[in-house]
Automatic annotation (TrEMBL):
It comes from the Eukaryota. Belongs to the TMEM97/sigma-2 receptor family. It comes from Puccinia graminis f. sp. tritici. This is Efficient mitochondria targeting-associated protein 19. One of its GO terms (cellular component) is endoplasmic reticulum membrane. The keyword Cytoplasm does not apply. It is found in: Endoplasmic reticulum membrane.
Amino acid sequence: MAAYTSADRRDQVYLGFFLIHAISAVCVDIQPLLPQAVQLDVFKRLLDFYLENTPDPLMLSARSQDPSFLWFRWFLVHEALFFLPCFLIGIRGLLKGTPSVYPILLAYAAAASTTTATCLVVLVLGDHKVPLTSTQFIFLLSAYGPFFAIPAVMLVDMYHRIHRLIGSDSSRLKGKKKA
């Protein structure tokens, strides 16, 4: 029986994270992008509940289509068109244990950590139209934080995994002479 490695444990975290992120993306994040006519009532109510309890300035601006937050709506489009396929590919690749999934996970992790870091900066330093209580502010930081931290760890992890694979191949290639 093979030993359970730290990479295996990280992969389990990534799997769980992808499942959670995919669900939150479909049920909440991309809802402001959809026309009212195609939104499912249960998802509308979920987003309403979320915004009533945590007046998330980013999601409020996306819903209101505030032009000063066009960048955030683009992040949501990016989540729908790039992140969701990455979740499906990532889940499949991690379940199969195939290293061929590492480059897409690296690309996802770079994009997700960068976009979420931008959102965190706006949450912390932005001028919000709806004031946040300290409890709401801490909740939002704790809600957004893992969506930065896990991709940031994944970014470093996938870089090292790819580097090890390429490094081992390139050292073999160096030993071959040109014909």
